[in-house]
């Protein structure tokens, strides 16, 4: 990047920080601002990512951001609270999410019958995870009942990690013999996929639990300075990732399960994780949406078609809302609450990072259509969910359902 472009982007970051509260009230979200900026810069011909080595830069940013998002989100999820009083997100994750992948696979195959079932499942798996950051007014509004906010946040925090094995298996099957490392694995693709989804969690849990115990001891005996807590957190996330990769497991699954074990084993305060992600993590999110707008969005427009537009709209509506509605049957929620939870499944960071990772690591067919479908879905979601979050959340203010008027709370899974 030229010095002028770097200075301009830094001014944008500083300006957004200064005006962040005002912009959020005006329905202008962080993803909107940085995606639009990246798109304008990309269409103008400026290089945010240099042509030489560009793929490596994009891949590195995707990996770093995804590892931190998975580890930090998982570390803020309380398994005890989840099992005790989180009926809504449990239904959405255990019933709604599998149905979403199933419906998405069927719809993708119906719209593109010439593509394989594995590719259809890959599209569905990439577009199933949600991103609560795209509808932040919903999860911070006093008007929205607490159980609804928790449902959106916990689902968003957990479905990234739960979707990972499906993404990996679908990508492996879609790529076939072209999959990196798969052909060299004893037993072929099945053995490769099994090692990925078994060894990854085992390594992650072991490292996360051990790191939590070490941190508790260091805090108790006074050998750890507070300013280094974030650095310790950062190093453990990547130890889990690379540790799994060394033994043939999947590093992303290890990061997720490692964060889950770390957060639920740590006895000391985990406030430093939230502070770290609100600072360094937010900058990485800005960079990711900037790259998305500059690099992926133009590619998506280039390969867009009526099929990809139709898929994007269907994935944000029927494919998402019908499974969520079915999963919440008998939950006691009213029609508005069910529709609300179904609509606020925005697609953002996880879908962007998953498609970047798949395109870099797997030689899947139909790459152009895959990029176009994901790009259009995320772009529509950024605008549609950003604009509707505040108005639809405000409608709860006059309603009398159970849970109305509960105070806003910081709940796990918000990224």
Automatic annotation (TrEMBL):
Q: Which UniProt keywords apply?
A: Antiport, Ion transport, Membrane, Transmembrane, Transmembrane helix, Transport
Query: Where does the record say this protein resides?
Result: Cell membrane
Does the record bear Transmembrane helix in its keywords?
A: yes
Q: What are the annotated GO cellular component locations?
A: plasma membrane
Q: Which Pfam families match?
A: Na_H_Exchanger (PF00999)
Q: GO:BP terms for this protein?
A: proton transmembrane transport
Which intervals hold domain Cation/H+ exchanger transmembrane?
Answer: 14-393
Instruction: Kindly list the residue ranges recorded as spanning the membrane.
Output: 27-45, 57-74, 86-107, 119-139, 162-180, 192-215, 227-244, 282-301, 308-328, 340-359, 371-394
Q: What is this protein called?
A: Sodium:proton antiporter
């Amino acid at each position: 990047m030229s010095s002028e472009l770097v200075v301009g982007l830094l001014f944008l970051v500083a300006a957004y920080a200064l005006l962040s509260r005002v912009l959020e009230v005006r329905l202008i979200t962080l993803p909107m601002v940085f995606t639009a900026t990246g798109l304008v810069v990309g269409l103008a011909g400026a290089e945010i990512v240099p042509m030489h080595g560009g793929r490596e830069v994009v891949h590195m940013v995707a990996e770093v951001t995804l590892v931190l998002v998975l580890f930090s989100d998982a570390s803020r999820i309380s398994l005890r609270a989840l099992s005790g009083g989180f009926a809504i997100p449990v239904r959405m994750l255990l019933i709604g999410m599998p149905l979403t992948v199933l419906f998405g696979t069927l719809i993708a195959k119906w719209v593109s019958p010439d593509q394989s079932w594995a590719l259809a499942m890959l599209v569905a798996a990439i577009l199933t995870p949600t991103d609560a950051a795209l509808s932040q007014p919903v999860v911070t509004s006093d008007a929205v009942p607490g159980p609804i906010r928790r449902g959106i946040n916990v689902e968003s925090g957990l479905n990234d990690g739960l979707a990972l094995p499906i993404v990996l298996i679908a990508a492996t099957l879609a790529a076939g013999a072209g999959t990196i490392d798969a052909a060299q694995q004893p037993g072929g693709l099945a053995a490769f996929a099994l090692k990925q989804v078994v060894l990854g969690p085992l390594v992650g849990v072991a490292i996360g639990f051990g790191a939590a115990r070490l941190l508790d001891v260091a805090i108790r005996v006074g050998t750890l300075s507070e300013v280094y807590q974030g650095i310790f957190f950062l190093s453990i996330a990547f130890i889990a990732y690379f540790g799994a990769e060394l033994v043939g497991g999947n590093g992303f699954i290890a990061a997720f399960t490692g964060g889950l074990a770390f957060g639920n084993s740590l006895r000391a305060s985990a406030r430093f994780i939230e502070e770290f992600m609100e600072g360094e993590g937010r900058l990485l999110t800005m960079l990711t949406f900037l790259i998305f707008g500059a690099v992926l969005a133009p590619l998506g427009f280039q390969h867009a078609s009526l099929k990809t537009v139709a898929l994007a709209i269907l994935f944000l509506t029927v494919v998402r809302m019908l499974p969520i509605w079915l999963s919440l049957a008998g939950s006691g929620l009213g029609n508005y609450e069910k529709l609300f939870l179904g609509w606020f499944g925005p697609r953002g960071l996880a879908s962007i990072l998953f498609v970047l990772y798949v395109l870099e690591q797997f030689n899947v067919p139909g790459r152009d259509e895959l990029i176009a479908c994901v790009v259009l879905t995320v772009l529509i979601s950024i605008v549609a969910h950003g604009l509707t979050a505040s108005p639809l959340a405000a409608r709860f203010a006059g309603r009398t359902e159970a849970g109305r008027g509960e105070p806003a709370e910081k709940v796990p899974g918000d990224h």
